[in-house]
Amino acid sequence: MAGRASDDRLNLSAGIASVSVALVLIAAKLWALWQTGALSVAATLADSALDLVMSLGALAAIAYARRPADADHAFGHSSAEDLAALGQSLFILVSAALIAGGAMMRLNAPGDALSNEGAGIAAMALSIVLTAGLVAWQRRVARLTGNRVVAADSLHYLGDLIPALGAIGALWASRRFGLDWIDPAVALGAAALMVGGALKIGRGAWDALMDRAVDDDMVAGIEAIAGDFPGVHGHHDLRTRRAGSRVFVNLHIELDGEQSLHEAHEIGAALKRAILARYPRADVIIHKDPVGDPHDPRRAGAEQRPR
Predict the structure, then answer these.
(1) Do residues 278 and 143 share a domain?
(2) Is residue 197 located within the same domain as residue 140?
(3) What is the pLDDT of residue 262?
(4) In terms of domains, do 33 and 165 share one?
(5) What CA dihedral angle connects 177, 183, 188 and 191, to 10 degrees?
(6) Which residues does the annotated region (Disordered) include (predicted)?
(7) What's the CA gap between 85 and 205, in Å, rounded?
């Protein structure tokens, strides 16, 4: 319980830091856009506005997902993280379309030249420093807690560094060489990055909501632990699914039917501890069958290890 409470505090700290950084960046980029009128700055401003929406959603999801299981939610509330991620991906796609449309209009019908590029460069430099610091903290939290929302938010902010660097390049090129076309070109690149990130986040959330099995490496790892475990004569019906940062594992093991219930329980409990030692944030349920059970689905020609 102490470990789970520590994870919750770290995850919440990452969520609060994300919201705080987004608020500061929105203020700085609004000022930079007012000073320069640069589309590349507008692209990063829109991205920061979406970051704020997503960070608020992520923070709410983290807070809600930490609630324990209850009578109406026997498996907990961690799917809230996936719902938040799916909503985030839709917001990103809409924003990317608006930015790309504005960039194309600027390319086809150039407007006024950029102005006060130095102010924009200063604002983008601040954005890079704050974003880099946030990403470093989020990556540390995700590594310690395994929280999927924090990890996804970290990847999204890491992607923001590229448009910010591009905006600085566009402002510098406009100031030094008068190459105003670079600004909408960078905006188009930022929109493309946003689309790629949205599709990745959305796919992961959709897979989790549709109860898709976890990756093959984790399935193989669980099978290897069960296959070599003392007292376990076989296993079948391994089923896995992911909900937010949690993985749910259901496994049938085959034990000596002549041993006592106490001995069978000890073997199952020890196997569960071994799986949790490898995958500490999994929720593991183990069903015990006697060797040669006539109800074993394999005897009916079913798949040995459906996932």
Answers:
(1) no
(2) yes
(3) 92
(4) yes
(5) 140
(6) 287-307
(7) 6
Residue 75's closest CA among 269, 241, 307, 275?
241
pLDDT band of residue 268 (cuts 50, 70, 90) is very high
- At residue 52, φ and ψ (nearest 5 deg) are -65, -45
- What's phi and psi for 69, nearest 5 deg? -60, 150
pTM: 0.59
The pLDDT, as a whole number, for residue 304 is 47
pLDDT band (50, 70, 90) for residue 171 = low
Q: Are the C-beta atoms of 45 and 103 separated by less than 8 Å?
A: no
Q: Is 205 helix (H, G, I), strand (E, B) or coil?
A: helix
Nearest to 27 by CA among 2, 45, 9, 43: 45
**C-beta separation of 62 from 81 below 8 A:** yes
Do 138 and 50 meet the contact criterion of CB atoms below 8 Å apart? no
pLDDT, mean of residues 190-210: 78
Q: Rounded to an integer, what distance in angstroms lies between the CA atom of residue 9 and that of residue 201?
A: 24
Would 61 be classed as within a structural domain? yes
Q: How confident is the model at residue 210 (pLDDT cuts 50, 70, 90)?
A: confident
What's the confidence (pLDDT) of residue 220?
Answer: 92
305, part of any domain: no
Measure the N-to-C terminal CA separation of the chain; round to a whole number of Å: 29
Which range marks the domain in which residue 222 is found?
A: 216-300
**More confident call, 5 vs 126:** 126
Q: Do 202 and 223 belong to one domain? A: no
For residues 168 and 275, membership in a common domain is answered with: no
